[in-house]
Amino acid sequence: MNRATNDGDAPALLIAGTTSDAGKSVITAGVCRWLARQGVKVAPFKAQNMSLNSVVTPDGAEIGRAQAMQAAACGIEPSAAMNPVLLKPGGNRSSQVVVRGRPIGEADAVSYQDYKERLRGIAVEALAELRSSHDVVICEGAGSPAEINLRAGDIANMGLARAAGLPVLVVGDIDRGGVFAALHGTLALLEPEDQALVAGFLINKFRGAPELLEPGLDMLRGLTGRPVMGVLPWLDGLWLDVEDSLGLGADRGAPRPPVGSQTLRVAVVRLPRISNFTDIDALSVEPGVDVRFVTAPHELADADLVILPGSRATVADLSWLRERGLADVIARRAAQGRPVLGICGGYQMLARAIHDDVESGAGEVAGLGLLPARVVFAADKTLGRPVGAAYGERVSAYEIHHGVISVDHETEAEPFLDGCRLGAVWGTTWHGALENDGFRRAFLADVAGRAGRAFVCAPDTDFAAERAARLDALGDLVEQNVDTDALWRLIETGAPAGLPVVPPAGPRWGA
Hints:
Catalyzes amidations at positions B, D, E, and G on adenosylcobyrinic A,C-diamide. NH(2) groups are provided by glutamine, and one molecule of ATP is hydrogenolyzed for each amidation. This is Cobyric acid synthase. InterPro entries: Class_I_gatase-like (IPR029062), CobQ/CobB/MinD/ParA_Nub-bd_dom (IPR002586), CobQ_GATase1 (IPR033949), CobQ_N (IPR047045), CobQ_synth (IPR004459), GATase_3 (IPR011698), P-loop_NTPase (IPR027417). The protein is an alpha/beta fold. It is built from 14 helices and 27 strands. Strand 6 (about 85-90) and strand 7 form a beta hairpin. The radius of gyration is 24 Å and the shape is globular.
């Protein structure tokens, strides 16, 4: 399978799911990796993404982190066209609407409907852009295509499939139970014109006996006239670059055995509006580093390092810290010289004062006062891919924030990346810094020394290689468990004609 670049529109496929977190993102990445290894020039696409995990592209656009991961699976740089609409939920039941990588305003569930018609055109144009410059485009749906109350304004699932003529595969998560009902019910709730594009199913996260599953596959095929094109087994360790906080429950397994005699315990505060928690992924692959997400004060007691991660609602999450008693515990730790790291929104919380007329409209708010800094929220969002150094190591990162932080350099604070360090408290707005191997090891060595831990960093942990290996595992998962000949035919020729219509459970179409 080796195709030259298309002169016209390249074929494309939409991978939808019965629910959020059914596995659309990882299966899309796996299909992309499988195709890329065949020499196919492939690109990922998600018309509309709702996620607080985002990244900055080389051209300065903000897109969902999952699409950047899928681009890596394709062996290409991410671009704004891969995720033309990104919704970032905030603390006031509204979301920031990011279009082609730039925020255009805030909207709640009702007012967002006014955007839909314009955004549908933008999404279709972005997909056409990718199809004109690649051999294949693999599209990921959002949530479920059977959200019948939202179908009229849909731009990410069957609305996109109809507009662009895309064949569709529906993924179901068997680990949750009820997968046959979910697959059949999803199809039955679709309009006949939508059903005509659904060509088959994939079952994800299977860890049972295949012979017990087979009768159900046969019955589903008989009931719907569509095949199950693959049963993908449960595979541990696929939690890198998850799309949203649902992925925080993913099984990371026990920490890898330490190089020395002791582990390093890291507690990451699971803020209600936590964002870009993928910053922590690089710590989890370090031997001897035990990473936990926590929400209660007592869970910080034995931590060697506490991390305040990014937040989409800094002021609201700072209030939550105080209400939960976490703020007091973190302040006591700092006074005792026990390590604390704040990243982006977490760094802002560590400052002395926050002035926010943009995100929360709260005006002047007292921060935790652990770093000699002041935050002023700007209307324009800072997006960038900065490069710097710390601990004598080169650091490349990305930044996404409205808060502009000024540091009082008349104090004893020392520079730390773009932020500062005072005692055992560090703050930076840079995301992804811990993915830099040399810097990560030097930082952890400093933390271990301040925490009094006899922790030894592994000398050869390569985070980029770890991510590449996991993407290869996704490619293997597709290659070994999906009917790839049928998958390729579907991509090239589209949904077959004459697929039967599955009647809904009750009166709906035109009733």
